Amino acid sequence: MKEYLKQFRFYLRLTGAAAISRRYFVMNAFDGALTALGVIIGAWSSGPIQPRIIIGAGLGMSLAMGISGFSGAYLAERAERLRRLRELERSLLVDLGKSIHGKAFKTVILWAAVVDALSPALTSIASISPFIMASRGLVSVDQAATLSIAIVLVILFSLGAFTGRVSKERILLSGVRMLLVGVITASIVFLLAR
Amino acid sequence: MLLVHDPIVKKVVLDVLKPHHPQIPELASKLVACHGVDHVGISLAEIDQNTESIKVQVEGTDIRIDTLKKCIEDMGATIHSIDEVEVVRRTQHK
To answer: Could you tell me the residue range of the domain that residue B67 belongs to?
Structure first.
């Protein structure tokens, strides 16, 4: 297992895929959280809501975003990486299919696709999770909606803080910047859905 | 009685063309793990847009050229030429 992990890290380093997967993670997790926020606030401010509807819509949305993320990233990443591999092969006049470059190529496109699929799916599932509690009668619908919005805002702040850490800027400021996007989105959806 | 067996390759200098990645220290670390290799020295000869030409000096107790070639090719590099070889006779006294 340790060997596999070491090899996997080597492939990421070799292809420069670590930066791309970080980008995919932030962009898609952000998408997932913000879409969930839109659904929750839109439904909540339109009138009384059924937790089952939010759960159904949320899970459907997570699945669709997961499938779309996986297939989109797989195809786009494959095309880009294959082009780069062919370019290298032309420069070296060899077939790199069996070399570490060929193996890294297959590994990183799959990795990018998994990151692209899981990040929006997980953040949207986390965002609607209070409604699962509400459907079990553990919290009220209003409490679930408040908790959901709080979870989305925490996710957005964490993503902002993460980007701040990557860019070596002020973590708090980056977190607040991303949080603001969430607050603005929530306000617009709230005003439009009323 | 003196028995003469196969010759042993002790040193090879290769002209190798490689992509920019893996970088030279990483390539050297992988090559030194190849069978019969004890010491690897790499120097950069030329750098291009996608590739680098390097001189690889390999020393060991029993270097197998085919295995070394495979190790190099596994890393996405290719041997242009074998520029220098040092071979000794494996002898056994009975």
So the answer is: 2-93
Looking up residue B45, the CATH number of its domain turns out to be 3.30.70.1340
- Between CA B66 and CA B36 the distance in angstroms is 12
Domain ranges of chain A: 14-38+48-193
Shortest CA distance to A151 belongs to which of A47, A22, A62, A34? Answer: A34
Q: Which of A14, A92, A96 sits opposite B17 (nearest CB)?
A: A92
Beta carbon pairs, A and B, within 8 Å: 41
Q: Which residue of B has its CA nearest to A15?
A: B21
Helix, strand counts (H, E) of chain B: 2, 4
* Model ipTM over 0.90: no
pLDDT 10s digits, B77-93: 999 999 999 999 876 66
**What total of structural domains would you count in chain B?**
1
